[in-house]
């Protein structure tokens, strides 16, 4: 029985190392105002535009995160585009544009595209119309 203890501790160590390392770095509340971002649906109040610098600062931490983690931080996407090989894009509008009620049609809004690979991990974040 005594010889199994080191093996059990080794397995627990490996398991705990894998579960804590896969999540990547956490985004702290003081780094990004998640609540304001979520409350400015479609970016129609231009409150997200004021958070662009914060978003740029946390951008490296978002790479590799799971879809659920992104939804928790940024809320539901304003638009989803499905792509080949089980990839998808989440689109978050940054400012008022044609997606907003009462806005002039044809005015493109600035936005962030977050690309998820087939494993539902962030693989790319791009800016449109910046």
Short description:
With 130 residues, the chain is an alpha+beta fold.
Q: Would you mind describing this structure in some detail?
A:
This protein is of the alpha+beta class and 130 residues long. Helices cover 33% and strands 18% of the residues. The protein contains 4 helices and 4 strands, in the order H-H-H-H-E-E-E-E. It has helices at residues 4-21, 34-39, 52-62, 67-74; strands spanning 79-82, 88-93, 111-116, 122-128. It has a 4-stranded antiparallel sheet with strand order 1-2-3-4, with no helix packed on it. It is globular, with a radius of gyration of 19 Å. Mean pLDDT is 85; it is low at 15-21.
User: Which parts are unreliable, with pLDDT below 50 for 5 consecutive residues or more?
Assistant: 15-21
Give the H and E element order.
Answer: HHHHEEEE
Helix and strand composition category: alpha+beta
Annotation, overall tally of beta strands: 4
Our count of helices gives 4
Radius of gyration: 19 Å
The pLDDT mean sits at 85
């Amino acid at each position: 029985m005594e010889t199994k203890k080191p093996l059990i501790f080794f397995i627990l160590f490996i398991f705990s190392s894998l579960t804590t390392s896969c999540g990547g770095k956490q985004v702290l509340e003081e780094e990004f105002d998640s609540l304001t971002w979520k409350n400015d649906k479609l970016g129609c109040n231009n409150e997200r535009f004021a958070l662009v610098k914060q978003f740029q600062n946390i951008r490296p931490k978002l790479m590799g995160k799971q879809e659920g983690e992104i939804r928790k931080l940024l809320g539901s996407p304003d638009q989803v585009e499905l792509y080949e090989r089980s990839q998808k894009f989440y689109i978050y509008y940054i400012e008022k544009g044609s997606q907003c009620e009462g806005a002039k049609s044809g005015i493109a809004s600035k936005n962030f595209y977050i690309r998820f690979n087939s494993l539902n991990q962030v693989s790319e974040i791009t800016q449109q119309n910046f």
